[in-house]
Amino acid sequence: MAFRPTVPDRVPLRAGRLRMLVVLAGLAVLCLLALRTPAFADEAVPDETGDEPVPRASADITRKVMINDMKLQVKNGNTWTDVPDGGSVPNWSYVRIYIDWEIPDMTGVNPGDTFTFTIDPQGHLLSGNFGPADLVDPGTSKVIGSYVVNGNRNPDGSMNDNMITIVTTLSEDGAQFPSLHNGFFTLEGYVQGAGNDIVFTVNGEALAPVDIVPEPSRPIPDTPLLKYGTQEAGQNQIR
Questions:
Q1: What CATH code is carried by the domain that includes residue 173?
Q2: Would you say 117 and 165 are in contact if contact means Cβ atoms under 8 Å apart?
Q3: Total structural domains in the chain?
Q4: What is the domain range of residue 84?
Q5: What distance in Å separates the CA atoms of residue 17 and residue 96, rounded to the nearest whole number?
Q6: Dmax of the chain from CA atoms?
Q7: Is the peptide bond before 90 cis (omega within 30 degrees of 0)?
Q8: Rounded to whole angstroms, how far apart are CA atoms 194 and 213?
Q9: In terms of DSSP H, where are the helices of the chain?
Q10: Is residue 71 in some structural domain?
Q11: Which of 4, 65, 135, 235 has its CA 20 to 30 A from that of 226?
């Protein structure tokens, strides 16, 4: 959508999906068109010696982020299905946590400021590192920030005790918007182990409890499928 200089409007901002393990995640943000002028006095701290100003330190603006909705979904084939409150998923299911968020007031936000989603995996959600990756406004192709995923997967594939974090750093263009709306992340990974009433949290807010149950066994066929062959001497073939 093109900017209209005399009529404020809202512009959707979208980013690629995050990948964890085989993990993807996506972000879309709808922002107001009216841009605010940065307070240049806040961009740097004057040096008392009279030399060049000292660059302003980045700030954590996570407190400004509002989570509007969260849900756990499990992948069945090519379809994502909501896991109901008290529902269950098998061990090693591929799941995602959907996070709907907004920043209604960007007052005082500056380039380089960050906000973080911290996911408590409760020892049952496995993810890897990803990023940094650009956060791009599809309407203007402006890079409004970048994000990284800090996972809990060891080099050998095992799970450690770390929290999973998604850290977004705003660019100069991204910090100009007076608000960010209709943003979302989808954080994908594998559940491990077994247990009842497991509650994943995002920034301290709880998702509906879920049971993780043993993976269902697959029946052995009555007649095993067998194929015999012989190798022809001196030839690269089997018959």
A1: 2.60.40.1280
A2: yes
A3: 1
A4: 17-32+61-213
A5: 12
A6: 87
A7: no
A8: 5
A9: 40-43
A10: yes
A11: 235
Q: Tokens 């992340």 correspond to what residue?
A: 185
Residue found by looking up tokens 């697959």 in the block: 218
Cα–Cα distance measured from residue 27 to residue 181, given in angstroms and rounded to the nearest whole number? 11
| C-alpha to C-alpha distance for 66 and 38, rounded to whole angstroms | 23
Residue in the structure block whose two tokens are 């093109």: 2
Tens digit of pLDDT per residue, the chain (239 long)? 333 333 333 434 444 444 443 333 343 443 333 333 333 334 445 555 556 766 778 899 999 999 999 999 999 999 999 999 989 999 999 999 999 989 999 999 999 999 999 999 999 999 999 899 888 776 678 888 899 999 999 999 999 999 999 999 999 998 998 988 878 888 999 999 999 999 999 999 999 999 999 987 666 555 555 444 444 555 544 44
> Residue 67 forms beta bridges with which residues?
101
Residue 83 lies in a domain: yes
Give the amino acid at 166.
I
